[in-house]
Amino acid sequence: MAKPKKRYVCTECGSVASRWQGQCADCSEWNTLVEEAPETKFAAAHNLSSGGRAIRFESLDAPTAPLARRSTGIAEFDRALGGGLVPGSAILMGGEPGIGKSTLLLQAAASIAKAGGDVVYVSGEEATGQVRMRAGRLGVADANLRLASATSVRDILTTLGNGTPPDLLVVDSIQTMHSDMIEGAPGTVSQVRASAFELIRFAKETGTCLVLVGHVTKDGNIAGPRVLEHMVDTVMSFEGERSHQYRILRSLKNRFGAVDEIGVFAMEGHGLAEVSNPSTLFLSGRDEPIAGSAVFPALEGTRPVLVEIQALIVRLQSGATPRRAVVGWDSGRLAMLLAVLEARCGLSFSTAEVYLNVAGGYRLSDPAADLAVAAALISALADKPLAKDAIWFGELSLSGEVRPVAHSSLRQREAAKLGFARAFGPADGGQDVKGLRYAGIGGVTSLVDRLLAST
Ligand code: TYD
Ligand code: MG
């Protein structure tokens, strides 16, 4: 019999190559090809069009039972999930090491157990003693849940298959799990995929809600095969800067809810505390007005979050190439804004270093931040603080116009609640709300005129 051919699978995009290469031919990522078990070969004359069972078709409007969701007991977690855990669904929770995944899941597991749910918590990373110690610190050691330290998928499924299936199964982490159905060390693409497949099948068959913890690579993707993200119903990402206190739980994919809702937490001495009013958290520490600081009402799903954008401009004396550094925003977008300000308003940044920071380590993806960034840059360049009671929002086009953005009144109402009195936005994209005066800005030139004229 011929030796089975080796195959190599890209951990980023899942494409298959017949020999190892340093760079994936499809997605151009480096060092992502890993060896995998050989492809299954079928007999030459296989025919799939007979021998199967007939499948039953249904109509779209047939009655369906509504989703019975189970609350995690943590409102911010429920919100990010789109209303709670769905039985029989599989959730992948990604995040950097030390960000708080195990903490969040242990808190949720304990609160579900306290509410009468049957919870199994399997840790492949920590000994039961360590988990117990964390539970003690979180003040949930009295929760009645089944805790185990195990890495064999067969052991886990054999044990669970012999009793009543739990309501929630937490597996921390999928990279430590091992399936004896195939070869390879835990954490390899084929192991992660096979282990996840078996665990997800158990969840679907029994109605258990499965939460898999997934490690992320240094560029923020969930380690292991991309297919993992396709196999689960929901992909969540737990984000934040470790040096900062707060954490954001985001859903990147959700078969049972919207993907743009976020949950906000603060990591404290006794675990994760819910932050139901995030704006106060991100704006804290703003006392004296300083040049280069602008407040932007970002929108996360249906939730407005006020964040501070800080710009710093350092004029260079020598002819060295100036640096541009961005934390929390897209560097390509910053380059574009600088180009618009140079081309449309004649401002010069070419001999200056530009630093942009979204305070608190918050990561902005909302395009409506353009105007606030532009205001911060101009204010830093002119060394003139912006009005302390003002917020800025709007998208900038390459021609320098300020474009309307979605949900301006929601953004303004949040700002008014927090004591802001003025909003600057697109000329035809907003109006006064209670306690907040709105002023439209047509384009970057009028923005520059306004900022340089007033203080
Ligand atoms: P952990 O949940 O272990 O992170 P992950 O599972 O994502 O790797 O959280 C680890 C960090 O959280 C650790 O550095 C200590 C910190 N922490 C607190 O600040 N307070 C707490 O109550 C707990 C349990 C952890
Ligand atoms: Mg952990």
UniProtKB/TrEMBL annotation:
Keywords, ordered alphabetically: ATP-binding, DNA damage, DNA repair, DNA-binding, Hydrolase, Metal-binding, Nucleotide-binding, Stress response, Zinc, Zinc-finger
CDD domains membership: RadA_SMS_N
An example Gene Ontology CC term for this record: cytosol
Motif annotated as RadA KNRFG motif, chain positions: 253-257
PROSITE patterns assigned to the protein according to its UniProt record, in alphabetical order: RECA_2
GO process terms (BP): recombinational repair
Residues annotated as binding ATP: 95-102
Domain RecA family profile: 66-216
Molecular function terms from GO: ATP binding; ATP-dependent DNA damage sensor activity; damaged DNA binding; hydrolase activity; zinc ion binding
UniProt keyword Cytoplasm, yes or no: no
Entries under Pfam families matching the protein: AAA_25 (PF13481), ChlI (PF13541), Zn_ribbon_LapB (PF18073)
Family: Belongs to the RecA family. RadA subfamily.
Entry note about domains: The middle region has homology to RecA with ATPase motifs including the RadA KNRFG motif, while the C-terminus is homologous to Lon protease.
Role noted for this protein: Plays a role in repairing double-strand DNA breaks, probably involving stabilizing or processing branched DNA or blocked replication forks.
NCBIfam families named among the record's database cross-references: sms (TIGR00416)
Descriptive protein name: DNA repair protein RadA
Species this protein is from: Aurantiacibacter luteus
